């Protein structure tokens, strides 16, 4: 069931186009307010977040959502380049978060994690499939978990930040 009355109005392409129209308007507002240097980070693999995995029948990644995130990222990157070339003194940069997050999810051991597909908590004898809740008991060593949707994934956040910054500044 759709959460919004206009959810069925868009296909993947028209949805990305709608998001880019909205994004462009917001960037123009920021520029008009004096913003000249912006770093915008793209989406990660949205089909790999716990909610999407729970919604699948197999618990696997939702490749359609991942493709949609990639389409959004491509369009956003192109929009930033286009606007930066047209607006006076604008410097808009795009940070590609997708590949970094995807690699951590698919290769957690490479980054020092033992787990990238479940939260590091429990609620009594129940291990939540989506995320930790306020009443959850956290596991003892959270540094083994590359949790993406937790409110405070300290080790994972540091890995992501370093990788994204490095690839954005060098690329």
What are its keywords?
mainly alpha; 45% helix; two-stranded parallel ribbon; globular; 171 residues; single chain; two-stranded antiparallel sheet
Supply Rg: 18 Å
Straight-line distance between termini: 41 Å
Count of individual helical segments: 5
Oligomeric state of the chains in view: single chain
Low-confidence stretches: none
Tell me the fraction of residues in β-strands, as a range: 5-15%
Query: Could you give the count of β-strands?
Result: 4
Main sheet overview: 2 strands, parallel
| Average pLDDT number | 80
Secondary-structure content class: mainly alpha
Strand order within the widest sheet? 1-2
In one word, what is the shape?
globular
Q: Give the proportion of residues in helices.
A: 40-55%
What can you tell me about this protein's structure?
The structure is a single chain. By secondary structure, the protein is mainly alpha-helical. 45% of the residues lie in helices and 8% in strands. It is built from 5 helices and 4 strands; from the N terminus they run αβααβαββα. It has helices at 12-32, 50-55, 63-86, 98-106, 154-170, and strands spanning 37-41, 91-95, 121-122, 137-138. The strands form 2 sheets. The chain has a two-stranded parallel ribbon. A two-stranded antiparallel ribbon has the order 3-4. The longest helix has 24 residues, at 63-86. The termini are far apart.
